[in-house]
Amino acid sequence: MTVHTSWRRRAALSTAALACCATALAGLPAGASAAPSPTGSAAAATFTDDFNGPAGSAVDGGKWQVETGDNVNNHERQYYTSGNKNAALDGQGNLVITARKENPGNYQCWYGRCEYTSARLNTSGKFTQTYGHVEARMKIPRGQGIWPAFWMLGADIGSVGWPQSGEIDVTENVGFEPGTVHGTLHGPGYSGSGGVGAGYTLPGGEAFADKFHTFAVDWSPNKVTWSVDGNVYQTRTPADVSGKQWVFDKPFFLILNLAVGGYWPGDPDGSTSFPQQLVVDYVHVTTNN
After folding, report:
1. CB contact at 8 A, 198 and 234
2. What are phi and psi of 200, to 5 degrees?
3. Which of 1, 42, 181, 241 is the most buried (most CB within 10 A)?
C-alpha cells in the first residue's frame, strides 16, 4: 500500500527542526539476495560504537552530539532533550532512546506546551564518511504515532541546505506499519513525499518490535543498496532520480532519533503506550571491500 503525503521538509542542522521523513512506499517481501559482505581484506572499520558502559551513562560525546528542540516542519509532537534523560546506556551493551509522555521541564513546542520528550543524536563535526557499509542492529518500538529512524545527511547541509545536501534513510518505521520499514533517498527534486525508496516487510505477520534486526546500506559511487538482516531489498542509482542531480558522492554524517507524531505516522492515540524505547545494540561503519 502506498501512503500519499503532501508535506515539505527543510533541515536545520543547529536544532532538531528536522527528523527523517521518507516516502511511504509499498512494502516489499523479504529479498532473496544476500547483502554484500562488509568485511574483507580491503575493508576497514571507520566508526564503531557498541554502547558499552555503566547503566544510565550518556553516549560517548567524542562520537555523538545530542540535539535539542522541537520540529515544526514535520509537525512532530516531541521535544528532544539534552543529556542522558532520554538517551542512555543500559549497562548491557545497548543505547536506549526513550520517548515519554511527559514534560517536567515545561518545554514549549510549535503547538504549545510539549506533550512528549525524546532524543536525537548525530555525528556532525565528529564523524563523516563517503561510501562504505553503514549498519545498526536495533530493536524498534511500537505503537501508533511512533517514528524511529537511523539515517544520514550530507555534511554540507549548513552551506547548501536541505534537500540539496542529500539524505539517505537507512531505515525508518511508522507505528501503523509494525512489520514494515522504509529506506529512501532524498535530494533536489525528489524530497519529502517525492523521495526515492521502497519498503521491506517481514514475512508471516511479524513485527519489527518483537526482536532485534540489522539494518544496513552498502554505498558506493553512483549506487546505494539497502538490506535487512542481510536480505537486499532495493538498489538505487542515478537512473532512479529521473535526470535530477545525484547528491550522494560526498561526506555524510549519521543520525539516530525517535520521533513522536508527525504528518507521516500521525499522532499517538489511546492505543499508544508510553514510554517507548528504541534499543540500539551497535552502530558500525566500514569502508567498502
Report:
1. yes
2. -125, 125
3. 181
Among 67, 76, 172, 177, the one annotated catalytic? 172
The values of phi and psi at residue 205, to 5°, are 75, 15
For 101-105, the CB contacts below 8 A with 24+ separation are 101/268, 101/274, 101/275, 103/79, 105/79, 105/81
Does the reported pTM lie above 0.85?
yes
Strand partners, 137: 214, 282
Whole-angstrom Cα Rg for the chain: 17
The residue assigned the cell 505516522 is: 265
The cell for 44 is 576497514
Residue at grid coordinates 565528529? 126
51 near 136, Cβ under 8 Å?
no
How far apart are the C-alpha atoms of 261 and 280, rounded to whole Å?
21
pLDDT in tens, 153-180: 999 999 999 999 999 999 999 999 999 9
Catalytic residue among 76, 115, 135, 167: 167
177 is catalytic: no
* Annotated catalytic residue 172: yes
pLDDT tens across 14-52, in order? 333 343 443 333 333 444 355 555 444 578 999 999 999
Query: Pick from 164, 131, 181, 139: which is nearest to 245 by CA?
Result: 164
Task: State the Cα–Cα distance between residues 110 and 77, nearest whole angstrom.
Answer: 8
Question: How far from each other are the two terminal CA atoms of the chain, in whole angstroms?
Answer: 36
φ, ψ of residue 242 in degrees (nearest 5): 55, 45
Question: Which amino acid, one-letter code, is at 91?
Answer: G
- Phi first, then psi, for residue 160 (nearest 5°) are -105, -15
